[in-house]
Amino acid sequence: MPSDHKEKKKFKILALDGGGIRGLVTANILTEVETQIQKTLGRKIPLNQYFDLIVGTSTGSILAASLVLGKSPAEVCKIYEEKGRDIFQAPPLRKFFSWISGSKYSNKGLIEVLRNELGEIKFRDCSKNSSAELLIFAYDTLYRNTTFFISPCPEENRWFNNMKLWEICVSSSSAPTFFPPYEFKFTDSHDQKTKTFTHVDGGVSANCPALAALAHATKIKKKNIEDIAILSIGTGRTTQPLEYVNLKNWGKLLWAKHIPDVFMGGQIQITTDACDQIIKSVNPDGYLRLQFELNKRFGKDGKLLPHNEQINEYIHQNINEEMDNTSIDNIAKLKNATELFIANKKDKIANFIKNTESIELVRH
């Protein structure tokens, strides 16, 4: 290699959306990503050693944290398949009265599962054995902004450094109406007083975290856009139409039922379009979005299909789009649809990885 040149590698970001139990979709897609990385590099490499930054919101935070700790996508799949019902469990009376007061579920099941899966590791230590940094988003209800939980954090005394990793994930996954807010408690090192921060689901502001990750990479990591590659993975796009004939008579209760899906899903298209245009303007192969519609709702003529024809294009059955449907039937449908989607996207995944691994020669 000429002495006046050096290698220039991409800063690789893995961005994982929110979506409740549908995190199973993401975990299954990641198994194929892992396989294609192995084929390209000629050796098996954990995702926390391949990516430079792993980012997640809500259920994506659970995925991201698990990967950074060294879990494989197959191991993460088991969390959703075997522990999903433990997370989303509540007596019928709680679900009924949640229309009036409280959340649909307590967070006891969520906390128990995450403590068992992630352990008691402090957030500051979770990325010590990982080449990838971890970035998780949650919404601070006190200061009304989005908290960027980053590990390792460049600020030694940042208030969240000594919080447990599972706590960070609980806060990021506390979707309004589904789970109660999570309250962090800590002792301020300056005045030794106990202080609290209340957080809810990061999907309130960044359900698709790719754009926020891009901002972090350029502002904090000082990376040029042309040097960044982002693999963004969704949990299946909800497509249930909300028609005027129904909407016009909705009161607060019915709107409350649909608000999480509306505000979390509504921002995804803007985020993906922005990332696609920004990155591809200088790096045509630097962005890949992996997402599919859970159910096809409209025909080629743009008209709404009859209800019995509103089905998933891969398994030709209707998939329940609720974020908390943990039935055996729904889990099976999500897995089957994802497997067929993956088979259709293998070449795109392979090409993205090959292009990302291409080393540029630049003058120093």
Textual characterization of the structure:
The protein is an alpha/beta fold. The protein is built from 13 helices and ten strands. Helix 1 packs antiparallel against helix 4, helix 1 packs parallel to helix 13 and helix 4 (73-87) runs antiparallel to helix 6 (108-118). The longest helix has 30 residues, at 328-357. The two termini are 13 Å apart. The model has no long low-confidence stretch (mean pLDDT 89).
Present the secondary structure layout.
Elements: E1 5-8, E2 11-16, H1 23-41, H2 47-50, E3 53-57, H3 59-68, H4 73-87, H5 92-97, H6 108-118, E4 133-140, E5 145-151, H7 165-172, E6 182-187, E7 194-201, H8 203-206, H9 210-219, E8 228-233, H10 244-247, H11 252-266, H12 268-280, E9 287-290, H13 328-357, E10 360-363
Parallel strand pairs: 2-3, 2-8, 3-4, 8-9
Antiparallel strand pairs: 1-10, 4-5, 4-7, 6-7
Helix pairs in contact: 1-4, 1-13, 3-7, 4-6, 6-7
* Uncertain segments: none
Question: What is the element string, with H for helices and E for strands?
Answer: EEHHEHHHHEEHEEHHEHHHEHE
Radius of gyration: 21 Å
Total of DSSP H or I helical runs spanning 4+ residues: 13
The best one-word shape is: globular
Helix content: 40-55%
Calculate the mean pLDDT score and round it: 89
How much of the sequence lies in strands comes to: 15-25%
Distance between the termini: 13 Å
Q: How many strands, which pairing sense, and closed or not: the largest β-sheet?
A: 8 strands, mixed
Number of strands: 10
Structural class: alpha/beta
Please state the oligomeric state of the protein chains shown.
Answer: single chain
